[in-house]
Design a protein that fits this description.
The chain is of the alpha+beta class. It contains 7 helices and 8 strands.
Length: about 230
Amino acid sequence: MPDEQANYLMLPPRPELAGLIACFWALCAPASAAGVIERLPASGRVELMLHYAGESAQYPADLPGGSPVFQTHRQVNSRVIGVRSQGYCVEHSGPTDFVAVRFKPGGLAAFTNFALEEITDQSSGLIFVFGREGAELEEQIYEAADPIRQLEILEAALLARFNPPQHHQRILHARDLIMQAEGDLAVRWLADEVGLSQRQFNRLFKQIIGIGPKRFSRITRFYRALLY
């Protein structure tokens, strides 16, 4: 990079995707910016990251009295990073070039046929969302060069795969209720509120959000506490 500056761009999704996607973002940074450790809390969100340069490591944050629930993951290619059920750290080495989308809890479920619980505390290749077309999309975005155009291509690719599962809106409504109440709602009440049996509600919540409603509520309470 000629000016040796880190360039970060964040764009909101179009209105019809606002309930599913938090933002699109792109980061391009020189090797001189590497080595900084970013500490991130568990938040129930999923990231789809197209990775074009350098290497990044994700590992559990050092939580007193706790043991890690996932192992160090080194990202050297494009990945879907599943829900993290505990805080984690991200450290980059070498130059960085990311084009990414950050989904709201349960948002990714509208674009994939897989259950989100399959990648909780793990990661998967782009096949998880785009199937065999993932490699072609990765190349198309890379060739676009301009970060705004890259993010537009990624958004269009997601829109083309929009196919929410059954009861998706019910689970997202429960998600919103939990977040509005800062995690202080009973699972039985939530199931009744969205018109599902408690057993069905728990199963669908894990499939669509990636973790169960009780764990999501705990993460919500912890995440909110960090903000105040």
